[in-house]
Amino acid sequence: MSEAVIGSAATLEPGGTPGVVHDFSRDKQVFGVPWGKAMMWIFLLSDTFIFSCFLVSYMTVRISTTDPWPVPSEVFALSFGGDPIPLILIAIMTFILITSSGTMAMAVNMGYRKDRNKTFWLMVATAILGASFVGMQAFEWTKLIVDEGVRPWGNPMGAAQFGSSFFMITGFHGMHVTAGVIYLMVVATRVKTGFYEKRGGNYEIVEIAGLYWHFVDLVWVFIFAFFYLW
Amino acid sequence: MAAEQGQQHPIKIYLWIWALLFVVSFFSYMVDYLHFEGVTRWTLILIFMFVKAGFIVAIFMHMQWERLALKLAILGPPVAILVLIGLMALEGDYVEDTRIEYYGESTFQPESPHH
Q1: What is the CATH number that goes with domain A34-229?
Q2: Looking at this predicted complex, what is its ipTM?
Q3: What is the pLDDT of residues A71-86, one digit of tens each?
Q4: Which of A63, A145, B48, B99 could staple B92 via S-S, CB 3.0–4.6 A?
Q5: What is this structure's pTM?
Q6: CB–CB of B60 and A210 under 8 A?
Q7: Which site among B32, B42, B57, B106 would you substitute to test the A interface, given the most A Cβ atoms closer than 10 Å to its Cβ?
């Protein structure tokens, strides 16, 4: 069968396992997605390994230390006048990030509907939620460093490795959120100013930015489970 | 086929998943709040974590609508991390045993975090 026949009959392309063989063996783009999206996925895959290395290192030092591990539930408790509520700030941060993932998903949807105004405002909302997440993280770090005396080399509550794991993991994640906020604002501005209209009105870039943002939320799901809840 | 159709789906599905993520996150918070301990705690944490992660990847990141070639290329390699986890868990146990053997049990007196 010639290349032209396969290429023109997109709806007849096989799915499932034969589809995998078909996709890899034809002499063109493999995944049936825009190259930017495939590249973003591959970047996210590499990022998955980086975060996994951090989390696995954390697991290893937590298993191997003979000192008691600080109880995250108590360390991250916050008092609003009354008794401290366990993990409350982290819970709020989790809900903020999920909310931002929701607004981002809507932005992607509006992008494909070519509703530039809604796409712009949804992306701005996502970025604002992301920025507030980083703000809360800054507050959390300040509280831990100033009030609780947590340092990368030790802390009064337990195993010394707690601090280094915490700063490394949440710091790297916070850096990702910060980069994401900037990325979203750049794309949102370009959506607003009609930058993509001049390039054929293709808004897949919103979905690609969205992939990055959802990934940041995804990593937080794992950090929340393993670092804060475990 | 010139341009891709893109991932266009009804808004309803996003709203459902959004709500579901809220509910499941609330459950994971409750695991801590209601003081579940031991195996029950770890099992619940993992279940809620995988439910959330699965829905984010499948729906929000549109993975369920992508071709199998992309799914395998992206979701396959992270399985290797399980090997690393297994090896490092063994190593961690060994190092802990060695430390106890040579340095004895911990004499660390933890302070309660002050508020």
Answers
A1: 1.20.120.80
A2: 0.91
A3: 988 888 888 888 888 8
A4: A63
A5: 0.90
A6: yes
A7: B32
